[in-house]
Every structure is written in C-alpha cells, then in structure tokens.
C-alpha cells in the first residue's frame, strides 16, 4: 500500500518534468528555426552581394562596350591621320581615366618610334621625341609585340627617361598597335602617378582599345596610299599634273597668309623627239624615269616634283627666292647633263640635256596659272637661246636674270 501511495505521488512530478522537457524541446526547435532563418538571411545577403558584384561587372562591361562602340564610330568617321591621332587620345583619356598617355608609330624604316600624339607629357616630350627599336619599355614592346605592365616604374631598370612621361615612378602600361593582327606599327602608352595603379584587366582593356586604334590607322594609311597613288604619274612615280596644281594653289594660299616666297621650275628635255626616234619609246620612257630620279635626288622633302606631261617636268620650291631657285635649277641641269643615259652620244653635243624656266611668287605673279605660263615662257626663251640652260622670268619692270 505504501508503494502504491508512493507511485501515485510521483506522477505529478513526472508530468511536470515531461512538460518542462517539452518546453525545452520547443525552445530548442524555435532557436534552431531562428538559426536556420539567420543562415538563410546570411545566404541571401551573400547571394545579394554576389549579385551586386555581378551587376557592377556587367555595368563595367556595358560601359566598356559603349567605349568601344563610341571609339569605333568616332575613329571610323575620319581618314585624316592627324585628326585620327587627336580623336584617339581624346577618347582614351575620357574612357580609360589615365593621367598621361601617348601614341607612338614606327618610322618608315621601322627603326625608331616617334611620338605622334600625346597628353600630359612634359614640354620636351613632344612630336620630335623618338626611341630606337628595343630601347626602353616602349621600344621593347614594339620589337617583341608583347604588351607590358610595369607596376612601379621607379623599380624598373628598363624604364628610361626617354619614355617621355612626367614622372619616373608610378605605374605604366604599354601595348602594341597591330595591323592585320600581326604587324606592329607602333605602341600606346599610359601612366598613373601611383604604383600598382593598373591591373591585368586594365591591360586587356587598353589592348582592346589599341586594336581599335590600329584598325582605324590601317584604314587611314590605306586611304592615304590610295590617294597618293591617284596623284602619281604611272611612268615616273612623280606627282601628276592635277596634284601639282592642287599643291600650287595651297602654296599660294600659305604664302599669302604668312607673306612668304616660293619659286617654280618648269623643265623640258632638249631634242627628246630625236632621242625617241633613234632609240625607241621604251628607251625614251627609261630616260624619263631616270630624269625623275635625278630631280628627286636634287630636291628637298618639302619640294613638290611632278611630271607636267610628255617630257616636261615641274618643281615647286617652297620658301626659296629667285636666286636660291636658280642655284637649285643649275644643280638639276648639271645632274642631267652629266648622267650617263643610254645612247646619249647620239644627242647634240653627245649629251641628253634639259632647259629650265624659273619664276618666283610674288615678284613675278601672285596667280597660279600666270606663274605657270611665265615659267613656260621662260623655258621657251631658254630653248630659243640653244637650250641646256636655266632661264628666269624677269620681274615686272626688271631686267631678266642671265640664262646659264
């Protein structure tokens, strides 16, 4: 009876204990739910951060695509090389947020890199600055065709003062300009003042921009070559008559604006019909090509040497007065006279010779057609005196220069 009484007395305690256990279990389950909820929130927050990062990346990609689209559209809108250089640097600075940058192209010999356009460079880092192929970072990139990222220029022994950037420290990127995907024609450089200012991603972006610039440069170069070919005489390679008149008009406008002088030579081979009749037109064509080479060899890069037609040639001499032009003309006359042309012994005097007419702006005339006409008359006067001489048109009211 006592055990029964004792058992019956324990039941209320057992019930309370069980109730407490259930409460604790419920509390644990509630806390577990809260933990799972917090974990879900953290996962959602992590996922949200990932989405935000992806969104930023997408926005950067969209911005890059807009940059490339604007770059491509703008660069393809011009075929003028100087304008192309200016536009390229403007877009690079605006899009890539760099402090100093430059565009360098290889010279015709492919031996030196020459600055064609730049921003943020010192005054002595202008267009005349050049690097040899393989010299400095820029020269090395042009030589190897491999882009280079210099995290700290002050720690890079190959970074020369000739790189032309204002600071010899900070970070530096140099990427090649390639045409047809292979040939390196130059480099694009960029600098930031702080070390490690560029990432590998920046270098990839800069290379993509360089590819756009190179494609535009290639198109402009092809256009310039095509335009130049259309301005050339097929036989001699000299400028043709139309191109000569275009240059004459430009030179007149320049001379008027800056109050400068220039001279014009017109020359004709003496007794060339007899040479053709004796040796044939193929030999005559060879003689014309050799005369063209002699004229070029005795002229400056600034001079315009052209074939006027038949055996007549013209030479435009910027910034040269009548006396100076007479010296140039005499050099050309002598060069032709002394050259060993095929069959020259059949010509009068045993030589193939030229007669030159000379006029000067503005003393002889200020009009292009009249200058040409006066040069032609001076040439004819020289022919009348026996040829193989320089005959200068007299200034209005003046005495003629003595023919030589």
Report what the structure shows.
The chain has 404 residues and is α+β, with helices and mostly antiparallel strands. It has 2 domains: 81-229, Beta-Lactamase (2-Layer Sandwich), CATH 3.30.450.40; 241-392, 2-Layer Sandwich (Alpha-Beta Plaits). 51% of the residues lie in helices and 18% in strands. It contains 9 helices and 11 strands. The protein has helices spanning 2-75, 81-96, 136-144, 200-230, 241-258, 272-279, 281-297, 322-338, 368-384, and strands spanning 100-106, 112-119, 130-132, 148-150, 171-179, 183-192, 262-269, 304-309, 312-318, 354-361, 390-392. A 6-stranded antiparallel sheet has the order 3-2-1-6-5-4, with helices on both faces. A 5-stranded mixed sheet has the order 8-9-7-10-11, sandwiched between helices. The radius of gyration is 40 Å and the shape is rod-shaped. The model is unreliable at 1-7 and 396-404 (pLDDT under 50).
Average pLDDT: 83
Basic shape: rod-shaped
First CA to last CA: what distance? Answer: 160 Å
The total count of helices amounts to: 9
Q: In the CATH hierarchy, what is the class of the largest domain?
A: Alpha Beta
What is the helix fraction of residues, given as a range? 40-55%
Tell me about the largest β-sheet.
Answer: 6 strands, antiparallel
Strand content: 15-25%
What CATH calls the topology of the largest domain is Alpha-Beta Plaits
CATH architecture of the largest domain: 2-Layer Sandwich
pLDDT under 50 segments (min length 5)? 1-7, 396-404
Number of strands: 11
Strand line-up of the largest beta sheet:
3-2-1-6-5-4
As a whole number of angstroms, the C-alpha radius of gyration is 40 Å
CATH superfamily of the largest domain: Reverse transcriptase/Diguanylate cyclase domain
How many independent structural domains? 2
Q: What structural category arises from helix and sheet content?
A: alpha+beta
Task: Write down the secondary-structure element order.
Answer: HHEEEHEEEHHEHHEEHEHE
């Amino acid at each position: 009876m006592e055990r029964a009484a004792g058992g019956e007395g324990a039941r209320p305690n057992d019930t309370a204990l069980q109730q407490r256990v259930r409460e604790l279990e419920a509390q644990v389950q509630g806390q577990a739910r809260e933990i799972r909820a917090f974990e879900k929130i953290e996962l959602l927050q992590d996922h949200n951060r990932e989405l935000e990062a992806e969104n930023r990346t997408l926005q950067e990609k969209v911005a890059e695509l807009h940059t490339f689209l604007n770059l491509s559209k703008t660069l393809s809108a011009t075929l003028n090389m100087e304008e192309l250089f200016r536009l390229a640097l403007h877009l690079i600075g605006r899009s890539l947020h760099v402090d100093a940058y430059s565009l360098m192209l290889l010279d015709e010999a492919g031996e030196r890199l020459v600055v064609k356009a730049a921003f943020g460079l010192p005054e002595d880092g202008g267009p005349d600055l050049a690097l040899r192929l393989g010299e400095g970072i820029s020269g090395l990139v042009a030589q190897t065709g491999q882009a280079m990222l210099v995290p700290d220029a002050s720690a890079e022994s190959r970074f020369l003062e000739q790189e032309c950037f204002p600071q010899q420290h900070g970070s530096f990127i140099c990427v090649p300009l390639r045409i047809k995907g292979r040939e390196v024609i130059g480099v694009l450089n960029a600098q930031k003042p702080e070390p490690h200012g560029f990432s590998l991603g920046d270098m990839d972006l800069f290379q993509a921009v360089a590819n756009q610039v190179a494609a535009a440069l290639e198109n402009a170069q092809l256009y310039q070559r095509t335009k130049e070919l259309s301005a050339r005489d097929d036989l001699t390679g000299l400028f043709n008559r139309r191109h000569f008149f275009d240059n004459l008009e430009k030179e007149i406008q320049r001379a008027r604006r800056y109050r400068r002088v220039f001279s014009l030579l017109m020359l004709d081979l003496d007794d060339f019909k007899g040479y053709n009749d004796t040796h044939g037109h193929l030999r005559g064509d060879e003689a014309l090509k050799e005369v063209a080479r002699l004229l070029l060899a005795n002229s400056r890069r600034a001079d315009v040497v052209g074939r006027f037609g038949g055996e007549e040639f013209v030479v435009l001499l910027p910034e040269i007065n009548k006396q100076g032009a007479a010296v140039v003309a005499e050099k050309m006359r002598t060069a032709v006279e002394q050259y060993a042309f095929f069959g020259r012994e059949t010509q009068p005097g045993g030589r193939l010779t030229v007669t030159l007419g000379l006029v000067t702006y503005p003393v002889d005339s200020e009009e292009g057609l009249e200058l040409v006409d006066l040069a032609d008359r001076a040439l004819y006067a020289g022919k009348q005196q026996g040829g193989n001489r320089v005959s200068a048109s007299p200034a209005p009211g003046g005495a003629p220069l003595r023919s030589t």
